Amino acid sequence: MTAMLEMRGVSKSFAGVQALRDVNLTVEPGQIHALVGENGAGKSTLMKVLSGVYPHGSYEGTIVYEGEERRFRDINDSEALGIIIIHQELALIPLMSIAENIFLSHPPSWLGVIDRYEGYRRTRELLTQVGLQESPGTLITDLGVGKQQLVEIAKALSKRVRLLILDEPTASLNEKDSAALLERLVTFREQGIASILISHKLNEVARVADRITVLRDGRTVDDIDCRTEPVQEDRIIRSMVNRDLAHRFPERKARIGDPVMQVEDWSVYHPLHPERQVIKNVDFQVRRGEVVGIAGLMGAGRTEFAMSLFGRAWGRQITGRLQLDRHDVHLSNVATAIDAGLAYVTEDRKQLGLILADDVRKNITLASLDQVAPRWAIDDIAELKVASDYRNRMRIRCSDVYQEANQLSGGNQQKVVLSKWLMTDPKVLILDEPTRGIDVGAKYEIYCIINELAEAGRAVVVISSELPELLGTCDRICVMNDGAFVGEFAAADATQEKIMRAIMRNIKIPSKKGMNESDMRTGAMQV
Amino acid sequence: MTDKTVSLPEQPQRGGFIKNNLRDYGMLLSLFAIMLFFQFATDGVLLQPVNLTNLVLQNSYIVIMAFGMLLVIVTGNIDLSVGSVAGFVGAVGAMLMVRYHVGYPVAFIACLLVGAAIGAAQGYWVAYFKIPAFIVTLAGMMVFRGLGFALLDGQSIGPFPETFRNLSSGYIPELLPGADTLHPTSLLIGAVLALGLIYSSAKGRAREQSHGIDVEPYAVFVAKNFLLSGLLFYSTYLMASHLGLPNVLVILMALIALYGFVTRRTVLGRQIYAVGGNARAAKLSGVKTEQLIFLTFVNMGVLAALGGLVITARLNSATPGAGTGFELDVIAACFIGGASAYGGVGRVGGAVVGAMIMGVMNNGLSILGIGIDWQLVIKGFVLLGAVAIDVYNQRR
């Protein structure tokens, strides 16, 4: 079979850093081609070369598409030939309707006047193709993330897509929406539309991919034809990180003491939909020196639970009993929660964790300025010393502590956020997706930090969607689903299968109205 | 490559010190250049003692209000009502002193309290009710302009007792026996301030050096201090050879010191900047964001009231139209001085320099005989240019 797309010897560098080295990628017609690799491996860069975001001339190598060498000057050139890329951050306009979004650049019109009915008619056709039953007039903001993804795909279809590129389409989807999306790709394959699927979720890749290309540090390191050989996750992970699974997590000797935080009958309602109980009368506890994991799907209520504990930073009508060191506490705002010894490291580092335009020093001391400010005035020398100490201790790679946070890599940013919270000297540290979006090396360092904290007698709660991470770091894993704990395992006898089964056994098919997680997210943003 | 920052090489920082701090020095140098230009263009009139004194008197209220506006802008908000509030409070003060014969100190304090109450009222809607500051203060702009008209019933009220007028047209009392031409007390204060400036920055530099902190190169340090203290002493010398230091300049100096300290060195100041940088992250770090935004508006109200009193004393009458358009000058001063419209960025020194650039241009252009029409055009372009350079520098 002749290849539909062949990228040969593609190299690209940014300011002296080689992002791609001699990468080859061959996609055959009507195939689902998975592209995997850790963050920074060069997946997105390769796709930007393909789609013309990086124009011809800014990279080396050749692109042959449908039998001809192509030199795309911009994204319009590649779109004209049916190469459509859907980015991880969806490019939809929230307050416009589905139809308006789909025909944003080329609305059906006569003499510049938009023909709304024609747009609706064609939108309805496209929506049927992607399996959506929404009215074309529905606003994007009223859709969940899963459905928004499908709208993006409908938009791609409207441009007569022949090669669909999806950059981590399921990263923010729950299991059910992910399955629906992957099913679409399979349908498209039957219709002759090829896809390139960038994903971190190997189980999905294994389920649908015809061929898998693994990138590491900008090079092609493995190419697996799934029709001739079985897909082995271990092999892919080894290629990706070149490191055995066994060594992904540092060892720790657990010394678990008395309970530090005990939560009883904790109940939280949604701030925007007051009738919706998000956390349903749960009990929870964590002990000194213990690392407790909370597993669950997105939208299960894990972040909301953590934030409601943290000085009622999320939710309303919060009731229940919270004890720290066996004393009842009432934490009415974040400041009192910090004083009481709680710390919460957010899952959204850039929006909620850091002041990106401020330097490393100011970010580290923000939550404990009193420590460097005798009375009201800040002692800048003392502040500098504290910040430099954390920089060395946490091995934050920055030119100095006056470097702006937005110039750091994700892993180093996360270490800055961790430093901020360690400086508050917490008894209980809640880490929400602590390794999201950071590379493998930095992940390992974060795991080491978690271990150190536990060994120092702090209680640590890790919320994570990566099951191996929970198994590798925690002493005990609780499973949350739909606002309640539905299972609990000691790390020793927990497996990914057991946890996943606990999640799936209790999964409820969400009712149509009032239960999509975009609501959840907007709620979480009401900080 | 989902995380773009991962692949970027870490930029070598602090290459050339001057280059990296161009933003800080650039503003001061522009002011210096503008002053030099007008000094020559006006054949030396600009820096004549009487004109320099006038320059201070004419622009004092802008600088006073700019301190408040800077903090409001740093939190990512704006206050359009300050001109109306200044006018209204001036009217309140005039009513108290002229109609009801309230003593000057009591009326003064009462006016500041009225300003605080107005700031609190507007701050409440912005901070706790989350109505955009633009809308709240646009409403305030109309309300207080209207109330000012109503209070004065369309008439001017004045004149005021001598003591009140001294607020903006008086000079510090002469304590030393001296010649009639040069006021020794003023000169002495200038000298003390200049030496104090050099002493404190030298001490700070030594302290930082002893802790191994990178400091500016010695040559830059000397040049900067020489220039600043020289400028300070020379201008006090000029004013001392006229009538001495104006009272209002003393108020300005105190406010510069106060707000400079609050913004750079206090927990309160740091937290205000954090709110502007990322309000949600600040809140999750235990910063009481609503309270701080409320406070910046209360502070703005008090300073708008003070500005109103100063201008009323200067004009020696409260008029219904007083303060019209002040908000534009004040906001422009902050932005020319490097504050960011997105919040989180801006310095007290910058706002002062921004106000002085506006003031020198007003004054210089007037001396050159350029009409108010073209002055506005030129000022508009200066504002746009200053911010454009800023944005360009940040993109680099």
What labels describe this entry?
heterodimer, A: 527 residues, alpha/beta, 6-stranded mixed sheet, 34% helix, globular, B: 396 residues, mainly alpha
Q: What quaternary form is this? A: heterodimer
Radius of gyration of chain B: 22 Å
Main pleated sheet of chain B: none
What is the rounded Rg of chain A?
25 Å
Shape of chain B: globular
Largest interface: A-B, 65 and 40 residues
Describe the structure.
The complex is a heterodimer of chains A (about 525) and B (about 400). Chain A has about 525 residues and is α/β, with parallel strands linked by helices. In chain A, a hairpin with a 2-residue loop joins strand 11 and strand 12 (about 220-225). In chain A, about 45% of the residues are buried. Residues about 510-525 of chain A have low confidence and may be disordered. In chain B, helix 4 (about 50-75) runs parallel beside helix 11 and helix 4 crosses helix 15 (about 325-335). Chain B has helices at about 5, 15-20, 20-40, 50-75, 80-100, 105-125, 135-150, 160-170, 185-210, 220-240, 245-265, 265-275, 280-285, 290-315, 325-335, 350-365, 370-395. With about 400 residues, chain B is mainly alpha-helical. At the A-B interface, helix 1, helix 10, helix 11, helix 14 and helix 15 of A face helix 1, helix 12 and helix 13 of B.
State the gist of this model:
With 527 residues, chain A is an alpha/beta fold.
Sequence-ordered SSE layout with sheet pairings:
The complex is a heterodimer of chains A (about 525) and B (about 400).
Chain A: E1 5-14, E2 17-27, E3 32-36, H1 43-51, E4 60-65, E5 68-69, H2 75-80, E6 83-86, H3 98-102, E7 109-110, E8 113-114, H4 116-130, H5 145-158, E9 163-167, H6 175-190, E10 194-198, H7 202-208, E11 211-216, E12 219-225, H8 233-241, E13 259-269, E14 277-287, E15 291-295, H9 302-309, E16 316-324, E17 327-328, H10 334-340, E18 342-345, H11 349-353, H12 360-365, H13 369-372, H14 380-393, H15 410-423, E19 428-432, H16 440-455, E20 459-463, H17 467-473, E21 476-481, E22 484-490, H18 496-505, H19 517-524
Chain B: H1 4-7, H2 17-20, H3 22-41, H4 49-74, H5 82-99, H6 104-127, H7 133-152, H8 162-169, H9 184-210, H10 218-240, H11 247-265, H12 267-277, H13 279-283, H14 289-315, H15 326-336, H16 348-367, H17 372-395
Helix pairs in contact in B: 3-16, 4-10, 4-11, 4-14, 4-15, 4-16, 5-6, 5-7, 5-14, 6-7, 6-14, 8-14, 9-10, 11-12, 12-14, 15-16, 15-17
